[in-house]
Amino acid sequence: MLDRKFIVENAEAVKQNCLARGAHADVDQLVKLELVRRTKLIDAQELNRQANETSKLIGKAGSEQERESLKEQGRQLREQKDRAQVEHDQLESQIRELQAHIPNATHPDAPIGSDDTANTQVSLGKTPVPKFDFKAKDHVELGKSLDLIDFEAGRASLGLAFTFCATKLSCSIWRCSNLQSSNWSREALHPSRLPTWPIRRYCTALASCQEVPRRKSIRSKIPT
């Protein structure tokens, strides 16, 4: 996700990048809301400062009337600060939603096109492309026919383009992991230094890059 400050300072370049990548994002609206959000943040901070200063004067008041007047003034400042903070938080939520639709910057050498036909071949590996006397299957067909990849479960829980490893492939991955751990153990590496696979927890950072389940019913089943 692009930095918000970068988007505001390079709005035209960001809009051009969105066009190049076929992304539909309202960059102008984000910039507009961000400028308003900054103003609201300054207002909330200033009102909070004034309320704190007023609170300090209450104990120094020379009369009960002056004390009550300062209390009322402080109360009004707190209410104004709270309203400004609420408006700021609402703007923050709207900006995050807009920001999530803005793609990362494209490399200047990357070809621009609507599909893979615009791709250019940069180089080929040294190993020649094998030729078969039968029609080769892609990873989707192989994954389904050999029961290696569960596409339906991935789409149902995480969304389009996500998959789960089925039993056979999962077992193979764990065998490789155990073999690697055994090799490290023989090399006298301390167990605490062995790398482990992290358990994902739901947070806004992961949500923004669509790395967590979208449904709360699925989300709650993730171990924490």
Account of the 3D structure:
The chain is mostly helical and 224 residues long. The protein has 9 helices and 2 strands; from the N terminus they run H-H-H-H-H-E-H-E-H-H-H. It has helices spanning 4-9, 11-21, 27-58, 64-99, 139-145, 151-157, 167-186, 204-208, 216-219, and strands at 149-150, 164-165. A two-stranded antiparallel ribbon has the order 1-2. The longest helix is centred in the middle third of the chain and has 36 residues, at 64-99. The chain is elongated, with a radius of gyration of 28 Å.
Write the topology of this structure.
Layout: H1 4-9, H2 11-21, H3 27-58, H4 64-99, H5 139-145, E1 149-150, H6 151-157, E2 164-165, H7 167-186, H8 204-208, H9 216-219
Antiparallel strand pairs: 1-2
Helix pairs in contact: 3-4
Order of helices and strands: HHHHHEHEHHH
Strand content: under 5%
Low-confidence stretches: 194-224
The whole-angstrom Rg is 28 Å
Strand numbers in spatial order across the main sheet: 1-2
Keywords:
224 residues; mainly alpha; two-stranded antiparallel ribbon; 9 helices; elongated
Summarize the structure.
The chain is mainly α. The chain has 9 helices and 2 strands; from the N terminus they run αααααβαβααα. Mean pLDDT is 79; it is low at 194-224.
